[in-house]
């Protein structure tokens, strides 16, 4: 019984990050390990190559290896680098990876492995979140091609679109009651659906400029969606 309780306590404590100093030292250590081109396991020194593809563990000693810094989210989540993503498959992959690398499973392991599992887990969460939502997925695809849209860029947006956004914002500000807010919500949702389809077509045609313009519009609507969420919280 005591052993069981201690195990639980250790398991819980494994969740929490170590002290700042220890963490910094570990991060340095991890960074140098991750950046190393040596195809050796950090633990046993055994050959077997650095972690590439799905080789999260050393084939010899089974120690968890640091994340592969060259791997992008699509590769990590086992998806084609495309705007069209099978979200059911994405979710299965997310669960599969969390079962492999979740910090809960490493509470009894070495500090290095605890640290690596936290890094893996954070990466997997971030990759899943990014690829799941069309807007962040599209922005990430553009980023992989060296195209970024800085926050607050109003450039080249046609005045007709900006007027449309302004009017929706005004309507939302004036909206009284649940029905009025829901009506605006459904308009915005339909707009986002339409834009998502257009973005998909733009990526299929490798028209990245068009994708960039459409994603910028989606970001405006996404800001409206955030305001709708706030408005729905009862005061
Ligand atoms: Zn090893």
From TrEMBL:
One of its GO terms (biological process) is protein complex oligomerization. Acts as a co-chaperone in iron-sulfur cluster assembly in mitochondria. Required for incorporation of iron-sulfur clusters into SDHB, the iron-sulfur protein subunit of succinate dehydrogenase that is involved in complex II of the mitochondrial electron transport chain. Recruited to SDHB by interaction with SDHAF1 which first binds SDHB and then recruits the iron-sulfur transfer complex formed by HSC20, HSPA9 and ISCU through direct binding to HSC20. Plays an essential role in hematopoiesis. Acts as a co-chaperone in iron-sulfur cluster assembly in the cytoplasm. Also mediates complex formation between components of the cytosolic iron-sulfur biogenesis pathway and the CIA targeting complex composed of CIAO1, DIPK1B/FAM69B and MMS19 by binding directly to the scaffold protein ISCU and to CIAO1. This facilitates iron-sulfur cluster insertion into a number of cytoplasmic and nuclear proteins including POLD1, ELP3, DPYD and PPAT. One of its GO terms (molecular function) is metal ion binding. GO terms for cellular component: mitochondrion. The keyword Kinase does not apply. Keywords: Chaperone, Cytoplasm, Metal-binding, Mitochondrion, Signal. Residues 1-22 form the signal peptide. SMART domains: DnaJ. Pfam families: HscB_4_cys (PF18256), HSCB_C (PF07743). NCBIfam families: hscB (TIGR00714). This is Iron-sulfur cluster co-chaperone protein HscB. PANTHER family: IRON-SULFUR CLUSTER CO-CHAPERONE PROTEIN HSCB. Belongs to the HscB family. Its main location: cytoplasm. Pathway: Cofactor biosynthesis; iron-sulfur cluster biosynthesis. The keyword Cytoplasm applies. Residues 71-136 form the J domain. Homodimer. Interacts with ISCU (cytoplasmic form); this interaction stabilizes the (Fe-S) clusters on ISCU. Interacts with the CIA complex member CIAO1 (via LYR motif). It is found in: Cytoplasm; Mitochondrion.
């Amino acid at each position: 019984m005591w052993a069981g309780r201690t195990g639980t306590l250790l398991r819980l404590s494994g969740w929490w990050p170590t002290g700042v100093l220890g963490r910094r030292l570990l991060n340095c250590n991890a960074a140098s390990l991750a950046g190393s081109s040596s195809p050796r396991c950090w633990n046993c020194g055994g050959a077997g190559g650095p972690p590439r593809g799905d080789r999260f563990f050393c084939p010899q000693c089974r120690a968890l290896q640091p994340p592969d810094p060259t791997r992008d989210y699509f590769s990590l989540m086992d998806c084609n680098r495309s705007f069209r993503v099978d979200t059911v498959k994405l979710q299965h992959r997310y669960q599969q990876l969390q079962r492999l690398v979740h910090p809960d499973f490493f509470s009894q392991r070495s500090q290095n492995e605890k640290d690596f599992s936290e890094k893996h887990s954070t990466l997997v969460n971030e990759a899943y979140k990014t690829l799941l939502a069309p807007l962040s997925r599209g922005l990430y695809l553009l980023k992989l091609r060296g195209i970024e849209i800085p926050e607050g860029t109003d450039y080249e947006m046609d005045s007709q679109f900006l007027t449309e956004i302004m009017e929706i914002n005004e309507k939302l500000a004036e909206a009284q009651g649940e029905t009025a807010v829901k009506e605006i919500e459904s308009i915005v949702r339909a707009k986002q659906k339409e834009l998502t389809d257009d973005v998909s077509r733009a990526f299929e045609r490798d028209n990245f400029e068009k994708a960039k313009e459409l994603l910028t519009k989606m970001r405006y609507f996404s800001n409206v969606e955030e305001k709708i969420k706030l408005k729905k919280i009862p005061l």
